[in-house]
Amino acid sequence: MSRDHKTFMREAIKEGYKALPADDVPVGAVVVSNGRIIGRGYNQVELLNDPTAHAEMIAITAAASTIGDKWLGEATLYVTVEPCAMCAGASVLARLKQVVYGVQDIKTGAHSSLFNLLNDPRLNHQIEVVPGVEKEACAALMMDFFQSLRNQRKENRER
Asked: Is 128 among the residues known to form the active site?
């Protein structure tokens, strides 16, 4: 596994932590082109009350703005969790070269869990995918968040 993949996934993990104060699911993403980060994002669904404010969507929008182009054909998206259908679709539409993710999302994943939108030959673009980068750290971030949420709910019920 590439050292660069680990380095940039750690940046995505840092982005994921930014979602915690708003009680958003801690998914983080960065878009990298030519060895530099051109877009960053973290889930802001709760913060913005916007179901489309996923980390990947925010990072892709920021990257396109940074380079002044809607096509991100030389860029790689690093995201802590397997993209959902919306984010996988946006990745295809942006014509990303590569998507690197940490852990699978068995409930909504659109690379290998439920669908395979990133490599669907029926679409006009397919993306190289590298799963499992910094898997343990990405999984720990998610597990800690959901355990904390369960504990909060239990405490609220006990009151």
From this structure: no
Each residue's pLDDT, cut to its tens digit, for the chain (159 residues) gives 578 999 999 999 999 999 999 999 999 999 999 999 999 999 999 999 999 999 999 999 999 999 999 999 999 999 999 999 999 999 999 999 999 999 999 999 999 888 899 999 999 999 999 999 999 999 999 988 888 777 776 667 676
Q: What is the DSSP letter of 125?
A: -
* CA count, 13 A, side-chain hemisphere, 136: 0
Which helix H or strand E contains 154, and what residues bound it? Answer: helix 135-158
Report the b/e string of 122-141 with b at 16+ CB within 10 A: eeebebebeeebbeebbeeb
Distance CA(112)–CA(131), nearest Å, equals 9
The answer for 84, left when phi > 0, alpha when psi is -120 to 50, beta otherwise, is beta
For residue 157, the SS3 value is: helix
Given the residues 56, 74, 134, 136, select the one marked as catalytic. Answer: 56
